[in-house]
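Per reviewer request, we include the raw input and output of the structure prediction for the construct analysed in the revised manuscript.
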Amino acid sequence: MVEEYQGVWVFIEQNDGVIEGVSRELLGAGRALADKLEVPLAGALLGENITELTREVIAYGADEVYYIDHPVLKDYRTESYMKGLMLLAQKYKPEIILYGATPNGKDLASAVATDLNTGLTADTTMLDIDMEKRLLEASRPAFGGNIMATILCKVNRPQMATVRPKVMKALEPDDNRVGKVIQEDIDLKEEDMRTRVLEIVKNVSKTNLADAHVIVAGGKGLGDENGFQLVKDLAEVIGASYGGTRDAVEAGWLPHELQVGQTGETVTPKVYFAIGISGAIQHVVGMKNSETIIAINKDPNAPIFDIANYGIVGDALEVVPKLIEGFKELLGDKAGVVHV
């Protein structure tokens, strides 16, 4: 019965003993949901030699941590992690479980949802609670990003959602917080696992937009590849990373890994230049949490101005060269260094 389920859980994703940033962000979002429901917030943690990580989970907002420490859980595998999380969820019956929308988080969430016979909302960007019915309102862009769809799991429990990194805000850690830590045992044998981890190969990209402090992004308003070169030139002068919209990627102006938006990266830089970008929701969901947004567009009614902190109405092909010259004059021999 639905009444048996209570509490908000966050699956705490960790790799090599380091908690992923999205899990800290979800503890912040989960804290708000738990407070609204007046229930505890818990972290569900799996791995090997992870006892010390329970302190960090509590510091970032959890009231409780349920964890399983086992050698077979050293590296992520669907089978072993699903068994671990299933054990915890079936025993303690949380009403909500949140996962990061990472490769591992999405894989685990879908496997657990199947075995628990419950619903799962993927790539969520907004979370709230319908207090009258105690339903998780998990919202995400739909129909190509043209609308926001709010998805409910009315019958089965737990209610589950994967949430995109960088769209929620982590709380400031409080090392003085205290919480309840519950360790569970599980019967796992390596020889029973259907897969083996032979080697982990890390692909380190030279450009990581998710960690950039300043991003210069361009869209189809720049006209062509020559126009988009202004984005790269401005980024070089101010020591920023550069990216763009899906239209810019599809036009061949930049590779997919530099795309910002619903089907690209979600970013939260201190400064985000949106140049020749109209402000379609599929792009906005990937950058709306930037600290300062500077928009340049010749259409004064472009939706991007609705979220911009500063706006310049004008032809980007005329405005950006003047910005480049201005920054070169201002920065002098310090050009190319991030100054925020």
